[in-house]
Every structure is written in C-alpha cells, then in structure tokens.
Amino acid sequence: MQAHNRQPPETRRNEIWLVEHPPVFTQGLAGRPEHLLDAGTIPVIKTDRGGQITYHGPGQLVLYLMLELRPLSLSVKGLVNTLEEAIISLLSELGLAAERRPGAPGVYIEGAKIAALGLRVRGGATYHGLSFNYAMDLSPFNQINPCGYPGMAVTQLADLITPLPARETLEQTLLTRLAEGLRLELTTADAVRSHHPHG
C-alpha cells in the first residue's frame, strides 16, 4: 500500500484490494497501549492508519482502498460516508437494518459493530480501508477495547442470517456498491484479491 502511495500521482491508479489476514491485532497511529488488554499469542502490528486497535483474522473481509480523492471530488469525510453507506446498503439487501454511530466511524447492528474503518491520506491519496466481520472467531475482540471503546459489542454476519451468502458473492456485491458510491468503473485489475499482506 505504501509503495503504491509513493508513486508519482500521474502514474497511480485507483485500486481496491480484497484480502484476508491471519490472526493479528493492528494498532493505529493514535493507538493507546491500554486498549490492548491481553495480546496472548496474537501478534500486534503498529500501522500508520488512523484509529485505535482492532483485530483481523480468517473469515473477515478486508478491503484496502488506494484512491485519488481529488479526481473523485471526495473529501475524507465524504469517503468515510461512502464506505459506511456501501456496507449499510449491502446489509439492507440481506434484510438487516444497520446504522452509523456519530463520532465512532463504522457500521453497527443493534449497537454491535460489524464493520470498522481505518484510513490514511497522504499526497491526496488514500490507503488502508475497512474490515467486515463475515464468519470468524470473534473471541480475540475480548482481548482488546475494539477501536478504543471499552466493552464495545462486536458481531458478524454468520450470527445474523441463515443461510450465509457465499463470500465471493458478498465481495462482489460490496465492490458493486462501492463502485456506485465512488462513481468508479471497476475492472478485475482494479480489484485485486490476495492473502495476508502487511502493507
């Protein structure tokens, strides 16, 4: 991500990476050590995104967005709203009512967080992105204060609907909603699927 961001603006292209991490806690630039309650055997990686600590692991959808904001006529706040709205729209199609929470970026269902956001903007371009809890072991969230909020409830799609949509179907729908919100035409070259990147 950082290497992509360091390219000259005239050579950068908008890209969205679909990834899945092994178990890892990631700490944002403003991350406070007291929000890591017990790392146990899970590694902790300091990142240069915004926000506090969160957990990534198998069964979670992670999207990294390398986007040029100015050509898209987007502010950072506008991008956050677009990302949240794409998740809310996706969940609505599945019959689930989701919402934003003022002052706490992300998407929530009945007060429990199902999607988290963490972005970095440098040189007019974004990197990092969002995570969506699909079908995963949620217990590591008990080892942290998720996103810096003690006692924050966390949920996942697998606990909310039956049958669970195929991961590939969900990814494609989410990419479609994002492309609509960002007014982008995505090709398979723009949306890259990989595993276990760390920046």
How would you describe what is shown here?
With 199 residues, the chain is an alpha+beta fold. 20% of the residues lie in helices and 25% in strands. The protein is built from three helices and nine strands; from the N terminus they run αβββββαβββαβ. A hairpin with a 2-residue loop joins strand 6 and strand 7. The termini are close together.
Ordered list of secondary-structure elements with their pairings:
Blueprint: H1 2-6, E1 15-19, E2 24-27, E3 44-46, E4 53-56, E5 60-66, H2 76-93, E6 107-109, E7 112-122, E8 125-133, H3 167-182, E9 191-193
Helix pairs in contact: 2-3
Descriptive key words:
three-stranded mixed sheet, BirA Bifunctional Protein, domain 2, six-stranded mixed sheet, alpha+beta, 3 helices, 199 residues, disordered C terminus, 20% helix
CATH fold title: BirA Bifunctional Protein, domain 2
- How much of the residues is beta strand, in percent? 15-25%
Distance between the termini: 5 Å
Overall tally of domains: 1
The SSE string, one letter per element, is: HEEEEEHEEEHE
Reading off the top of the CATH hierarchy, the class is best stated as: Alpha Beta
Rg from alpha-carbon coordinates:
16 Å
- Which architecture per CATH? 2-Layer Sandwich
Overall geometry comes to: globular
Strand order of the largest sheet: 6-7-8-5-1-9
Tally of helical segments:
3
Q: Going by CATH, what is the homologous superfamily?
A: Bira Bifunctional Protein, Domain 2
What can be said about the biggest beta sheet?
6 strands, mixed
